Amino acid sequence: MAPTSDESAPLLLAVTGMGGVGKTALALESAHRARAEGWFPGGFLFVDLRGYDDDPATADQAVVALLDALGVRGSDLPPTTARQYDTFRTLLAQRHDRTLLILDNASDPSQYLPLLPGTDHHRVLITSRERPDALPVRVIALEALDPDESAALITRALHYADERDDRPTREPDALHELTALCGHLPLALQIAAATLRRRRHRHEGIASLVEEIRAAGDPTTALDNGSPGTDLYGRSLVLRPVLETSYHRLREDRARLLRLLSLAPDSETTTEAVAALADADTTSVLAPLEYLAAAHLVTPVRDDRAQGSMPRWRLHDLVRAYGMSVVAGDAGLRREGEAARQRVLALYVRWADAATHRLRRVAGGQDSQGRFVTRQKALEWLDRERAGLVAAVRWAAEEPFTAAAVELASHLAMYLEWRRFFDDWITVAGIARSAAHRSGDRIAEARAWDHLGIAMRDTGRAKEAVDAHTRALALFRTSGGHAGEARSWNNLGLALLSARRLKEAASAHTQALELFRAVGDRLGEADAWGSLGISLGAAGRPEEALTALARARDLYQAVGDRLGEANAWANLAFAQRDARRMNEAIEAYGRSLEIFEEFENWYGAGQTLEHLAMIHEAVGARDQARAHYLRACDAFTLADAPDRATRARAAAAALA
Fold first, then answer.
1. 192-209 pLDDT, tens per residue?
2. What is the pLDDT of residue 221?
3. Is 618 left (phi over 0), alpha (psi -120 to 50) or beta?
4. Whether 129 contacts 107, CB under 8 Å
5. Are β-strands 268-270 and 312-315 bridged in parallel, bridged antiparallel, or unpaired?
């Protein structure tokens, strides 16, 4: 804001941001510093326009206050409004010392446009919750603080009051949790700090305030209950009224959209999902979303990974909590919210199903919905939406969302395993299992137990995996799901194999094989042959293992399951390596690698390359081994498996 000799500094500057973000504090602090630097020898004039109060100040009222600050009052005050404005502008025009005019807390341009000086000698700083997009104004948009800044704000506030207050040092985790509950909003942080100062003589620390806020469910209510009064500028330290005034100023269609957006499963929502919430098309929701963004109630977020796409929309945590509380307090709005959640959940189910089908297919063509032209596009969509998809599955705990959320969990299984997001998979499968049990859907419950077992096995929890598959098997048996029973036998066998219960594993796979044959499921039969081959190899029966694995490969080829074929080639190669048939193993691994790369299954490709490297290292081909380790490192990096990538890189370095 520093003036320059060529008068090039902006004449009109606006500081904007959501309520409580610190616009007034920044404006006044900047004004004091600018005056100290000599930028404004005439000082600054300040008027609070109270734009979001029940009775906002008009420009006519503000000009009287400004004239009073300039010494024009009482009998000297012109009798008419027009003459008051003339006098104000004349005084500023005659004022040689540059002055800064701060018009604080404006909600509408009509409050401040008549107050502009009419001279380029002085500067004007406006603060508002809304961007003045229609005016040629330099805008500085404030956002919430970052986590470290938030923690520092509370720490300083406590130390200023009592330098012996060491609660931030003693409770760093609770401090950061508190700042997150405050949404890193300066006003909320001020209230939290003031509440902690008031409690400095209690034995409870920061964690007790965190517990209170969490127990209340709505941070705005919990914080306001402990609000200690006013800030440095005489304004009440209350949070909910700030959000209420912004909400109540909205036109009904915009207020409805904000309410519905607060019900979205994640804090960031695509334009398409917002349209589903609103039961509208994407084009019609853009204008109200852009208005809400101008009012700093939502924030548009561009996704660099999705070039040319519409933005995502981020809702501040406290605005989200407020919107949810508004819906919860009205029966009609609750019904409207349930319908909106059903629509967005149906959208997620449809697209997750399409994306999963795309992952299973070879290159070329597209999914049945016509959305995902390539597997990479399907993965990109799933990656971007993962947080929202997982959050939507959590709705399974509530009626009437249970069935759709359980279905969504099932559609996500392949992706979560593909990307190795096992923590998310365990969460999703656990929620689906509990929800299906409550609703009495035994087949869905069994399927969820199976998914839970696979995820546990992949994270080294073999004993828990055995228990999960045993439960799935029992449910499929009592529900008449013969194909599911066969698959559970196969999964149970793999879990038993991980637990080194080799004889039981082979028996389980044999049982699966017989059941798959009985129901005519050739793909399932291929799975069972492959699993049986692995068990036989682990039990020291190499020739039987090779026969079983070759049968699996042939069946996968016959039914056209390319990913199954890739795994079969890899398993066959492993058995051939154990049988010292190195050339055959190298050829089989090569066939496996070709398919994994075709499907962009980089974890499978990384494993295959690692095994190829080991074979070449074993036969003394160090250069080829090193090259394969380096390629494995690249594949594991693409698969987001940094530990495996590091291990492969280290193996390559050892051969340098």
1. 999 998 887 766 789 999
2. 86
3. alpha
4. yes
5. antiparallel
In whole angstroms, give the CA distance from residue 304 to residue 386. Answer: 17
Copy the structure tokens of residue 337: 């919210």
Instruction: Judge whether 403 and 411 are in contact, CB under 8 Å.
Output: no
Q: Is 474 exposed, middle or buried (0-12, 13-18, 19+ CB in 10 A)?
A: middle
Q: What are the tokens at 263? A: 């019900």
* Token pair belonging to 593: 């690698």
Q: What is the pLDDT of residues 622-643, one digit of tens each?
A: 999 999 999 999 999 998 889 9
Q: What three-state secondary structure class fits 73?
A: coil
Helix (H, G, I), strand (E, B) or coil at 236: strand
For residue 95, how many other CB atoms are within 10 A of its CB? 15
Which amino acid type is present at position 626? R
> Hey, is 237 helix, strand or coil?
coil
Report how far residue 329's alpha carbon sits from residue 436's, in angstroms, rounded to the nearest whole number: 29
Tally the C-alpha atoms within 13 A of residue 139's C-alpha that lie toward its C-beta. 17
Strand positions, DSSP E, 293-416: 298-301, 312-315
Q: Which residue has the tokens 């306001």?
A: 224
Average pLDDT, the chain: 91
* Angle, CA of 129, 130 and 131, to the nearest 5°: 130
- What are the pLDDT digits (tens) for 70-111? 999 999 999 999 999 999 999 999 999 999 999 999 999 999
Q: What is the DSSP string of 474-486?
A: HHHHHHT-HHHHH
Return the half-sphere exposure (C-beta side, CA atoms, 13 A cut-off) of residue 600. 17
Per DSSP, helices labelled H in 23-145 are 23-36, 59-69, 81-94
DSSP labels, 510-548: HHHHHHHHHHT-HHHHHHHHHHHHHHHHHTT-HHHHHHH
Residue type, 166: D
Measured distance CA(612)–CA(574) in Å, rounded = 10
Q: Which strand (E) or helix (H) includes residue 47?
A: strand 44-48
